[in-house]
## 1
Amino acid sequence: MSDYRQQEENEQQRYEEEIVNVFETLSKIDVSKWVQQKNGLTYLSWAHALAVLMKHFPTATWWIERFDGLPYCKTETGYFVEVGVNINGIVRSCMLPVLDYRNQTIPKPNAFQINTSCQRALAKCLALHGLGLHVYAGEDLPFAFDESTQQAIDVGCDAGAVDRAAELVIEAIRKDDKQTVVDVMESLSKEEQTAIWVAKTKGGYFSTEEKEYIRKAKFEVYQQREQQNGV
């Protein structure tokens, strides 16, 4: 065997060993404390995933693929983004469609939605290297709505808007900010208010205590308004 051939085989062997090393190192890391759930989906925070990567492989690099200079690819079926990650010479890439909170394609995504998809693609690309791969097991199964999301859809309103409103209300309750609670609730349509008030036991947003807080907040804020208006 020629020296060149031997060198080529040695390099191939080192490359294969490095693939195993990278995958085994990242796949053994417990990412459960960084896993989040939203609308029945489980996902790994891209920021935490990137922090873990840099801790173990500080020379790793990543990039967003360009399509005619743009960070997305427009097709007849929707928009796509692609992200690549290089870890010690092991290159993997992941292409994702630009989706909304229901995992449906967005006909005309804005810059924020494209950026969010790039972040999701980065997290999934790291999963191809082994980091949090188990998080995505079964993701090809039909999308499962929780009851509160389904309620919003059934009454014909934006489930994403209801989700965001509920998060703002709960945060305001924690801060004991009654005015914000009332402002957020009043910003919702009648249909959205119906959806957000689903019982907690049926997959709704608020506990019994939180609902009681909202009622009291409305009463106090309305009283203040009447006093200011001289009613």
## 2
Amino acid sequence: MHKPSHFVQACRRIEGAIEYHTRAGSGSHKTRTKLRRELAFWLTTFHSYNSYPTLPKMRLPWAKWDETHGIDALRLAFALRLKHRHEMSRSKVMANSGCSRSTLSYALDLVNDVGLHLHDVVSDQNDVVEAHDVAHVRHSEVRLEARALQDLLLGAAEGYRVPQGKGFKYAEVYGLRFGGSRGRPGRDDAREQLVHVSRVATQLRAKGTASSVMPNAKSMKTQLDVATQFFPHLEIVGDYHTHPYDSLSELKRCLGLIRSRGRFDYAAISSMDSRFCFSCCAGLT
């Protein structure tokens, strides 16, 4: 019997809160069933708890949970996708996702216990999980020109050093990457993607806070229209966003930037749009 991971312990505390919340009253059994079903979806799809009708009504420290266990939730969602879509064994799933055995076993048991199937949760997963799946299978090699790196650093530095207003110390920023891409035969008959980045355009109208950034659809359309007109030889190949922190030690503590080498890791590649070849996250201190 494997020792429960911190993620599993936190999940069981939520299950305990659900039991307490539905301990009595008319329709309590029905409410408990609904809550546990929403819990199973939330833990395995990487959607926000606010996406569900009943779960947010429970007064629990959801934001704290996301901060502490968010990376494990994404690893779990990716692990379930590998198991279902690629029919990997549990050992291979854990090796490729970084998900612990106890976390994976707990999630599979919970999904089964509430009457769901892996197909149900995988088909409902956040686009971020799908993008990681694509990146994992495709194997991309990304090359940045010096000018593209300079563009990225200038935009990232402004978001970090210049407050948006009162109460804001810094903010995440978002931008698009332009260049070209092509496929080539890889090892084991796989396809590798070569991506060359020539320019980076930071999105001025993206809505950023200290811990998140939301791309602006109109800004994206405008940038694409201008790019098509003035440099049609370039295509959009990716995006980027930043993770600002007070210090290097805090960045490391929060796993704000970890370089991936043959294994999935949330902080290494965080896709904002699954249409792109790749997405990059820059950690700032």
## 3
Amino acid sequence: MFATVTDPRFPGSMQGTLVITKATPAISWKQPGDMRFGTILSAVQLNATADVVGNFVYTPVAGTALPVGSQTLSAHFVPNNSVNYSAVDTQVKVNMQSPEPGIQLSQTVVASRSSTGVVEVKLTVTNSGHAAAKDCTIASAKLGGLAPLDGAPAPQTIGSGGNALFVFRFPSAVGASGTSGLLTFSLNHKSGSSSVSVIITLP
């Protein structure tokens, strides 16, 4: 660059170099919402934008299934006008949640006693998982070490978010009203089984 002073009172000239650096594009990329393990990356998460025309290269790429925990997503932006704009790198975090349980069973117990002393136990089994518990049965039920008066209830399928009621009648010899009784049973379904012990207050 060359400059000349034209004012007769201040004659002279100057020569120098003017350096114009590349502009840095402004990148916008909001942190994605939590993802459930097994969900693959897509444009829902890989959605960074820039204030100039160009292309984003993401790491990991779309279609990747990330492990559980806090994971880093990276983006490398290359502007179309590389003469006047520089490339930019940016990152965000995404939280990968643990997978939903396939079948998650829990139970609640309500007991009552008839005028003849028979103790009726109503066992409600709830499935909070996302898969159905097929042919769910209650086996080897005992209260105070005694078996129920009737046979085992019929199998039931408990859908996701559903529940099933199983009713047992036990003899009065299980214990006196107000005392504690140990209820034990095996909770079975086609995908697995578990042994359960619950201490209840006898009615």
## 4
Amino acid sequence: MKNVSRVIAFAVVMLFGASAFADSFSGTIAADFGHDEWTLPTAPTPGITFANVHGIVVDSTGSLAVLGFLTPATVSHQLLFNNPTAFTITMGSGSEIAIFKITTLVILEDTPSHLQITGTGTISLTGYAPVKATFDLDSSDATGHYGATSSTFGIDVATVTPEPGSLILLGTGLMGFAGAIRRRLAK
């Protein structure tokens, strides 16, 4: 009976231990890229063009705080609304680098004086596995000429949590394994 309780205790530890990912991270980061110009979604090649592909990190929290204030940031020259997956932001220098790639985007507002885009993507940070993230791009032009003197790109990384179905499957398998060992020990 002592061995059976050890197996069950091991199964419980494995079940709850598997729910904690050592390679996940969370936090927020914002980068400023200066002047940009954008087009309406009805243009032949709708998108936003960054006049300066080099920017700086202006805010970072959580695990992304290793990329401190004024850390260099580089953005792809153009973000095409109909092909966002080609767009990449690289932030950091030396041994601490974060790379964000857009997977989907939604245009919330696109007028001559304001552009606001939100969406999802994947971010990787040195030493961690890539995780899903959301982003928000905000650009305003007081003159109404589809361009801004400053555009801010914010990325929010939520803590990765396993889905309940995977945990139930893992737990069921471990309990079955414990039952098989229990039957074997009972013989």
